[in-house]
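Structure first, sequence second, as always.
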């Protein structure tokens, strides 16, 4: 419903429908929507240290449960959900209600805090990622988030990063906030400054000028990038889902041969 992301979607992906606010999901029809995967990052302000942390008492926090209702309506095979780490300590137990809802719907799930800096971008961006799989077996979801290389720095099995984590920017300075549109300040040796729009695109893993659509302002582009998910992290999760599915298919073929 934010105007600039709507324009960006229409410009980049004109064949992709924009269904509008998720609170109207009951108006979406299953005859035209049969998703195998639903991905969402519900608003984080209700759980962020930059907000009031009202959790489910905040309308934006309540969209966590709306997301669960969307899963109920369309019953996708896979679910991926993202939010700030503050959701794990929310006093209204939004995360507990959310995961309980997924369990009642027959989804096995696993979650993990992943930091974008270990996926090749020059910012410390810790986010909670939950993966759910229809059928109640949590092991498939855990297989996405916890198996294989990529989630930790190198092969050390621990979150260690050098001071310089990219050729373009230093990993020093401090975070503006834990909110969705916070970026790391850049220290140029003399002062701190906010990243340029092109730097913000690189910080999130987008190609240069990806958001440079006609009539776009720097403010609109910067805000949209800050609210986005880091591309390399989402790519890694998507590739892991594919690998888990391929493994399951191969396992099923082996069982058929041995039967």
């Amino acid at each position: 419903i934010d105007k600039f992301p709507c324009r960006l979607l229409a410009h980049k992906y004109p064949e992709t429908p924009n269904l509008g606010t998720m609170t109207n999901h009951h108006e979406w029809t299953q005859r035209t929507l049969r998703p195998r995967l639903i991905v969402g990052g519900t608003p984080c302000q209700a759980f962020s240290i930059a907000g009031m942390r009202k959790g489910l008492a905040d309308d934006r926090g309540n969209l966590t449960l709306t997301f669960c209702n969307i899963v109920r309506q369309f019953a996708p095979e896979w679910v991926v959900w993202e939010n700030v780490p503050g959701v794990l300590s929310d006093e209204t137990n939004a995360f507990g209600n959310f995961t309980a809802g997924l369990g009642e719907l027959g989804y096995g799930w696993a979650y993990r805090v992943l930091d974008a800096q270990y996926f090749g971008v020059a910012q410390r961006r810790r986010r909670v990622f939950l993966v759910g799989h229809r059928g109640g077996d949590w092991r498939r979801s855990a297989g996405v988030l916890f198996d294989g290389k990529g989630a930790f720095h190198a092969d050390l099995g621990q979150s260690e990063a050098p001071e310089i984590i990219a050729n373009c920017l230093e990993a020093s300075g401090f975070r503006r906030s834990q909110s969705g549109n916070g970026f790391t300040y850049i220290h140029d040796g003399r002062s701190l400054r906010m990243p340029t729009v092109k730097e913000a695109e690189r910080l999130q893993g987008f190609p240069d000028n990806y958001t440079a659509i006609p009539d776009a302002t720097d403010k609109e582009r910067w805000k949209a990038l800050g609210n986005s998910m880091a591309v390399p992290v989402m790519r890694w999760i998507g590739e892991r889902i594919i690998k888990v599915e391929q493994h399951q298919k191969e396992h099923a073929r082996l069982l058929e041969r041995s039967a």
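Margin note: Residues 150-181 have pLDDT under 50 and may be disordered.
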